[in-house]
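Lab notebook, bench 4. The sequencing result for the construct came back, and we need a structural model before the next group meeting so we can plan mutations. Quick request posted to the team channel:

Model the 3D structure of this chain.
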Amino acid sequence: MAIIEPFALGIGFLLSFVYGYVPSYGASIAILTVIINIIIFPLTLRQTRSTKRMQDVQPELKRLQKKHKDNKEELNKEIAAFYKEKGINPLGCVVPLLVQMPVWFALFRVLREPLLFIPKSQSLFLDLENNVNILFFNMDLQIPASEISNWIERVPYIIVILMVVATALFQQKQITKKQGKSDNPQAQQMQMIGKVMPVFFGFISWTLPSGLVIYFLTGNIFRIGQQALIIRIEDKNEINDEKHEKEKDQTEDKEENNQQEQDPRKNRKKRRRK
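Done. Here's the predicted structure in token form:
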């Protein structure tokens, strides 16, 4: 695909640049993954906040579901309006995945045919041409696990694939652990995607170049730490907001009480003047 080639050339150059400082093909792919995830961090931040907000408003959603349990159309309208008010996108988790799709296809091309996209002047080109430093934990990162005929040699490939599935499931559970079962179609769709995607990545990892599987695994691990930090900051902000709201309510109550105390005094003074 012509639209993918500019991405592939850029990734090939960046990968070879990293390799120039870290002469390990697998480590270079892992570092490249971190760089890409840092670039798309604004999208990840938005996704995590949206998902967390959706998790936090589950009690309100259940109240709406109970209120409109006999009217699905009205329920969907109420929930859509509620999401808009709270700034929640039920399908927000899909956006970063879609943004990364060109990167995945480009990286697939680079890892499948690296000599076409890596500059010939770079050391990575020469090492790949001469099969030097291309193994990573005894895995050839240019081929998929499905092309390995010996099952013993497949073991490290299978372990990495299982780690991709496990980290993806943990990442999903990390952000949705408080979410209960929802009757809303959009929420159900998001939950279904969250359950299917880890299995899907494990399935396709069997036929993809193992370097791309390293990309998946590194990205999952990086996002687990990223999400933990975002959730911690969001929780702290929510606590501070609740504290400020409580202090504001207390101040308003105090002012109202003072006003009520002053009004009888004013009335008594008026009666005395009369």
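The chain has a mean pLDDT of 80.
Will bring this to the meeting.
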